[in-house]
Design brief:
globular, 10-stranded parallel sheet, 9-stranded parallel sheet, 33 strands, 9 helices, alpha/beta, 27% strand
Length: 489
């Protein structure tokens, strides 16, 4: 009888689905966390160890990690070891790991070619532009046959089942609002430069072929993930945005951020809307094989609630702290390398944000096999926790000693990337170089954000106070939110 009733309910829902908004469908049916996050974390280690074993089994003298195949990085080895990958581009969708591994992107859909770098109309975008492609309802695998810089006028609002595949081209996204993933699922963003993003809005922006709506002022994130699931960001390079480089809030879950390069920014990554927003308890994020590089200050990430797996990343000399949080998130740090800055007052990897000691002692923050350099130390908490200092332990996950090899190709690959030549996109192979005429002349002054290379302590304190005030305003007005209101971090 119970099964029969369940079938009736599901059948009834199916009758109404055509009339439900995509936002409501995602909020009611998609935002379910994985029932066993520890199992997902173990699977990541299994895949890394398998790739490292294959790497060591090769009879080769190359020890630099420059070999495009069998690098020890399970994501890259999955698709780079296919000599015909340029003609099997959608095979990338089978290479995800961690909580975002189920992101299909545009797999199974047709290829959409971005042939026009303009962004002149956010309501009536032209065919051939990136904006026209990402708002379509059907699954699309979006590719770039030539190098281009796309200077956005307004937020680039995605529909579900889309892949941005920048392999073989030098693609930069800059400008107003940048990328917004709001109440969508199954999005892959691969091999894209995202930088100099600033606030935009107070105008109409189209989100699908049949709907556009008024957008209030955006935060200026590089990538904003709002109430979305099954998202994979891989091999991107992000820097110099107005707010966060990547922010995920409002119950978003099933996210992997991998193989990316972060630099020149203050508040790098925010995971969680507020300490009191309970749906973020189901947030599950894998942060793997990234390089957190020069001129970063804090939030790598800053977590609220949820389960965050930080594995095999390279953290280089933050200015305030690397990993922080509040609201009792679970932080599982494994096999990372933390290199502390020279500042003797900034050696701690972790920071419990605005939380008294007695409150966070029971939080599950653990460090396993992390390499701690230049006096870095990780303050663990929860059952069996101990403070971990440089050389204070002897057992390390095997992968920790291969950080250079695993993260060697972090960031954008190929032309305009970090010494990783893939060549241009073609249907028959990889060839050519090309050039991006305007990519070197885009400066902080053009974005109106100012340089983040040197932020004084007073500026950081002022920013913190303003953020605190905004959180209080958001919390008191949260009941007035609607599906097209932009998130606040």
């Amino acid at each position: 009888m119970m099964l029969q009733r369940s079938c009736i309910v599901l059948f009834s829902l199916s009758l109404f689905v055509p009339y439900m908004s995509l936002a409501m469908l995602n909020k009611t049916l998609l935002l379910l966390p994985h029932p066993d996050p520890e199992l997902v974390a173990l699977d990541v280690h299994r895949r890394v160890n398998a790739s490292l074993w294959r790497r060591q089994a090769m009879d080769t003298t190359d020890q630099t990690g420059s070999n495009p195949c069998f690098t020890g990085n399970p994501i890259d080895d999955c698709w780079k070891c296919d000599p015909n990958w340029p003609n099997n581009r959608q095979g990338l969708a089978d290479c995800g790991i961690g909580f975002g591994q189920y992101a299909l992107g545009g797999k199974g859909g047709r290829f959409y070619f971005v042939t026009d770098s303009s962004d002149d109309d956010a309501v009536e975008p032209k065919p051939g532009t990136l904006r026209y492609g990402v708002i379509q309802v059907e699954p699309l695998w979006i590719v770039f046959p030539s190098n281009m810089m796309i200077k956005l006028k307004q937020e680039l609002i995605f529909n579900s089942y889309k892949t941005l595949d920048g392999r073989g081209a030098n693609v930069h996204i800059v400008g107003g609002g940048c990328i917004t993933l709001q109440y969508v699922s199954n999005v892959i963003i691969h091999n894209i430069h995202i930088h100099h993003c600033y606030q935009s809005g107070n105008t109409n922006v189209r989100s699908s072929p049949t709907h556009y709506g008024f957008r209030t002022k955006s935060d200026g994130d590089g990538i904003s993930i709002f109430g979305s699931k099954d998202i994979w960001i891989d091999h991107c390079s992000l820097s110099r945005c107005k707010d966060g480089l990547i922010d995920a809030v409002m119950g978003s879950t099933g996210i992997t951020i991998s193989n990316s390069f972060f630099s020149h920014h203050n508040e790098v990554m925010l995971l969680g809307h507020s300490d009191h927003y309970e749906p973020d308890s189901g947030m599950q994020v894998t942060i793997a094989f990234n390089h957190f590089g020069e001129k970063l200050i804090q939030r790598m990430p800053r977590c609220r609630r949820g389960y965050i797996h930080v594995v095999n990343n390279d953290f280089t000399q933050w200015e305030m702290y690397a990993i922080g949080g509040s609201g009792n998130p679970t932080i599982n740090s494994q096999g990372n390398r933390f290199t502390a800055p020279s500042n003797p007052f900034a050696k701690e990897v972790t920071k419990r944000v605005e939380t008294p000691d007695g409150e966070w002692k029971g939080w599950n923050w653990r460090s396993e096999g992390d390499i701690l350099v230049n006096g870095a130390f990780f303050v663990a908490s929860g059952e069996g926790a101990e403070m971990r200092y440089e050389k204070a332990y002897s057992v390390e996950p095997k992968s920790a000693s291969f950080i250079d090899q695993i993260t060697f190709h972090s960031g954008v690959l190929g032309v305009g990337g970090r010494n990783n030549n893939l060549g241009m996109w073609t249907t028959t192979g990889s060839e050519g170089n090309g050039g991006l005429d305007s990519y070197n002349d885009y400066t902080d002054e053009m974005s109106g954000t100012g340089s983040t290379n040197r932020l004084s302590f007073s500026v950081i304190v002022l920013s913190f106070m303003l953020n605190l005030l905004s959180y209080l305003v958001i919390f008191t007005s949260s009941t007035q939110m609607f599906s097209f209101q932009p998130k606040c971090s």
